[in-house]
Amino acid sequence: MKILNQFFSTLLLLSLLAGVCPAFDTGSHHDLTRAVLAEHGFDEDSIKAIQVENWLTDYYSNSPTYSMHRREVLEQFHFDNLYTYAQVEHYWAALINNLKNETQKAARDDDVMSMLVVMGIGLHAVQDFYSHSNWVEIHPKTGPDSYRATTYLSTVDSSQRDLLKGLHTGKYPDGRNSGPGAYDPPADADLHGDYDTGMNHDSQIRPRWAEAYVFAYCASHELVSAFEKWANEARPGFWSGIQTFVAENGQGKKLDLDVRASRNISMWLKAKGLDGTWKGGRSGSTRFFMAFSSKWVSGDSSVFVRAIRDGKVQDALTKDLYGVGEDLPVPSVEPFSLRRRTVEFHAARFMEANKSGLVGKLPKFGTPDFYARITIGGQEYWTRTIQRSRDVEDPWTEIAFADQETNSVPIRIEAYDEDSLDAEKDQKYDINPLVGELDLNLTLDLADLILSGDIKGLFDSASHPFSIGGAKPDSPRAILNAWISSAPLK
Ligand SMILES: [Zn+2]
Questions:
Q1: How far is the CA of 328 from the centre of ligand 1 (A)?
Q2: Which of 28, 188, 234, 251 is deepest in the core (most CB within 10 A)?
Q3: How far does Cα 410 stand from its chain's mean position?
């Protein structure tokens, strides 16, 4: 029976490859959600559970293991297909009202699992707004050395509202000619697009992704603060139970597997012009995708998967998003006011080193599939894998956040060759010239951006990167060119 299940799952997954809805890539949702929830005092299991619900909002918008009707419900949480300012405004008002109502219902019912789903879906939708709209084009950076922290919810009640008249989002999928809901696309609708075209800012390889990502960070903070306020109004004490949620009775292991699934399935998805949706293209692997996802799909689903797959929370959250109901007043949300700065890791080039430590011709077999794990402050950022390349330009960009009062931040860089379904078995590459040391451990001084530790000096721009590589007797070895920058949010 199990084998038969796996066989059918595999068939279903093959058809999944036929239609996938790209959102902000899964990695952006994943990293932003962790960064913001950790800053709001969330414990490990509740962060993971909300990351998983956030990802499943995308996954079940497309999965053929799910009925068409249920997919159409989740399809509405990506902020696509809003062609006029009036439609954008209506959607926001309905979304925030629905999120408030469902938060307070979950709190009154003392229903932790529903609250985790509400938060995962709500954060997903709000993050997607900055990725799928022309918000970043309407709010350009005022200079190269800072980011803007102006969000939709902090603007909508103010005099700046006049600036928003041209605000809209892209049509998805490109071939759509009706709906969702009451809105039919105009003939000249802007398209969501793909890696190379369209309105989207879904990943690091798209123009202005970094700005969309920073706006989404600010907006996620606002939404989590609003969730807290709404929950406390309905049932004091409920919120701290969400923050300290622990997955019990074997669900912790399943939750870890779901987190791996969110990364692996997104990383390896390969079909119809898609070559990975974790952090841009080039990471797709049909072989790994099939092997991993057929197992995950046919396995016994966790309570976190069932909560969104079998649940009804999302039905209530869709109320009038694409409808023609009356415009509701938006519940007031405290504007983002934290003093933060980015801490950015930019890899300019990553290449395998030959035996003498220099790049050179190497045998053709066993081409490596490089990826890196970058730990900035307390958070690990898992890059995309670049499949089958010994020498790659601009492979990775990761953005973390720090308080403006912080003096310095530790950064750890590890490089790997992906060659297993289980990352724990992947081979690490030596990028540190010291004997016996493989990784790089640095400290970034946030006042002057000078690095200390395994790299010393100022390397804060594309025109002035550092270059460092492994050395004998450690092996295998690689060379990393990168720079590390930081800019305040204003
Ligand atoms: Zn999405």
A1: 24
A2: 28
A3: 22
Q: How far is the CA of 308 from the centre of ligand 1 (A)?
A: 15
Q: Please give the distance, rounded to the nearest whole angstrom, from the Cα atom of residue 443 to the centre of ligand 1.
A: 35
- All structural domains of the chain with their residue ranges: 2-317, 340-485
Give Cα separations from 276 to 53, 63, 193, 286, 419 (angstroms).
20, 16, 15, 10, 16
**What is the rounded CA–CA span in Å between residue 383 and residue 367?**
18
Name the token pair of 483.
């720079």
CA–CA dist 309, 67 (Å, integer): 10
List CB-based neighbours of ion ligand 1 within 5 Å.
23, 58, 78, 128
SS3 348: strand
Strand, coil or helix: 457? strand
* pLDDT band (50, 70, 90) for residue 357: very low
For residue 48, pLDDT over 70 is answered with yes
Residue 144's pLDDT band, with cuts at 50, 70 and 90, is confident
Q: What is the pLDDT of residues 58-73, one digit of tens each?
A: 999 888 778 888 888 9
What percentage of the chain's residues is helix, strand, coil (to nearest 5)? Answer: 40, 20, 40
CA 325 – ligand 1 centroid, Å? 24
CA of 277 to the centre of ligand 1 (A): 11
**Superfamily of the domain at 340-485:** C2 domain (2.60.40.150)
Among residues 321, 301, 314, the alpha carbon closest in space to that of 258 is found at: 301
Give the pLDDT confidence of 167-198 residue by residue, as tens digits.
999 999 888 998 888 889 999 999 999 999 99
Cα distances from 127 to residues 9, 23, 24, 391, in angstroms, run 30, 9, 7, 33
